[in-house]
Amino acid sequence: MSPEEADALLALDAEHVWHPYGPMPGTVPPLLVTEAEGVRLRLADGRELVDGMSSWWSAIHGYRHPVLDEALTAQAGRMSHVMFGGLTHEPAIRLATTLVELVPDGLRHVFLCDSGSVSVEVAVKMCLQYWRSRGRAGKRRLLTWRGGYHGDTFHPMSACDPDGGMHALWRGVLPEQVFVPAPPPGFDRAPEKSYVDMLEREVARHAGELAAVIVEPVVQGAGGMRFHSPGYLRVLREITAAHDVLLVFDEIATGFGRTGAMFAAGHAGVTPDVLCVGKALTGGYLTMAAALCTPEVARGISAGEVPVLAHGPTFMGNPLASAVAGASLGLLRTGDWQADVARIERLLREGLAPAADLPGVVDVRVLGAVGVVQLDHPADVAAATRAVTGRGVWLRPFRDLVYAMPPYVTEDEDVSLIAGAMVEAARTA
Ligand SMILES: *Cc1c(COP(=O)(O)O)cnc(C)c1O
Asked: Which residues of this UniProt protein bind pyridoxal 5'-phosphate (predicted)?
């Protein structure tokens, strides 16, 4: 692409295209990407950047993976889409079956939908409707801990961290959920008794009005990239069961191996009543997510006055997305993602260690293929972005965080390049 063509496109972008979490017109021009292959993004000006973000947790196998490309083109040769009401097809059936085999034991039913936020909407609808069916319509609030992120549509927003989710702006619009403090940090630290007691007390106190507790297990993602002990998940499982409250795990970011277990719930050996997956489900090729539930939840809903789950996105079960998701799960099953995630974890630990001594850095943490450098101030995003792209890496720092979650196929030198760029960004930002 000539520099003139690129400039013309960027001018049109500035004129018409809204970007995530941005004003209109935009203030910082985005980079123009023309192709991506393996772990590299190619820019219009010919530069190549190693993608340390996996396109927001999703491209776990890298770009243009031959197996995923083949699954997509083969499916396009048969049918790209067909409605899911009254019709079904092999890619969706196979995908749902494989998902049930991979997720924690006991989740047997799969509702396919368009995006992570929609899967959280569906999960919440399942929980509210379950209690309504059982004659307890008053149980319709959610309890969650602070620091969470569950998506950008209104109900998921209501469970996001109240400060990060700008709840003050939305008072009177968002349903008011019950918030407890964020879990004490540290994956390896034993659960703190005072926090466990508080959880127990709050769930018990609100049980009559709670449909569910919803949390991101082990890693809180976009709400602050914090890690906590899997022990808290076991505690939540016990106390929700004891107080007639459902438990929802949002594994949209953590699912499919990212934290070193296929699902983060696996670190705790816990099965929630409802599980949300998304992001890496299609290996980053197409938008698709799912809410899975136990037979108990499904039976409860189906025994109610309105015995159906009244939800049905137009593109539910899209065959292209189902086919590529099935192929992505196939790669996880046959490949050695555990070894790759462990390798990336080790290299990130080594490569990020120097950041701990930098002024302005308060914490450096790594879990699975997730690396985080936390600053004691909001990052200068423009300066940090210049620093990392100058080193041939793509990262997107936000708030006080410089973080990466590279594709599992990232080779050693490229992981080290990413870690080096993070240290440089922390120095500059
Ligand atoms: C990204 C994310 C969502 C929202 O998913 P979208 O596909 O962006 O709607 C929800 N929960 C978690 C934990 C996420 O990381």
From this structure: 116-117, 250, 313-314
CA atoms within 13 A on the CB side of 157: 13
Q: Kindly list the distances between the CA atom of residue 275 and the CA atoms of 168, 214, 219, 322, 380, in Å, as whole numbers in the listed order.
A: 29, 10, 15, 18, 36
Cα separation, 97 vs 120, in Å, equals 21
Q: How much is the pLDDT for 371?
A: 98
pLDDT for the residue numbered 313: 95
* Predicted local distance difference test score (pLDDT) of residue 326: 98
CA of 332 to the centre of ligand 1 (A): 21
∠ at Cα 131 (127, 136), nearest 5°?
A: 150
Which residues, 6 or more positions from 23, have their beta carbon under 8 angstroms from its beta carbon? none
The values of phi and psi at residue 228, to 5°, are -135, 170
HSE, side-chain direction, 13 A CA sphere, residue 127: 30
pTM of the model: 0.98
| CATH of the domain spanning 69-334 | 3.40.640.10
List strand residue ranges (DSSP E) for 231-320, in order.
246-250, 274-277, 289-293
Which CATH code is given to the segment(s) 31-64+336-428? 3.90.1150.10
- Choosing from 149, 155, 228 the residue with most ligand 1 atoms within 8 A of its CB, the one to mutate for a pocket test is 149
- Helix (H) or strand (E) holding 159, with range, is helix 154-159
For the chain, give every residue range classified as CATH 3.40.640.10: 69-334
The reported pLDDT for the residue numbered 188 is: 96
Stretches in the chain below the pLDDT threshold 50 = none
Q: Return the best residue to mutate from 55, 142, 150 for the ligand 1 pocket (most ligand atoms within 8 A of CB).
A: 150
Query: In which residue ranges of the chain is CATH 3.90.1150.10 found?
Result: 31-64+336-428
Nearest CA to ligand 1 atom 15: 253
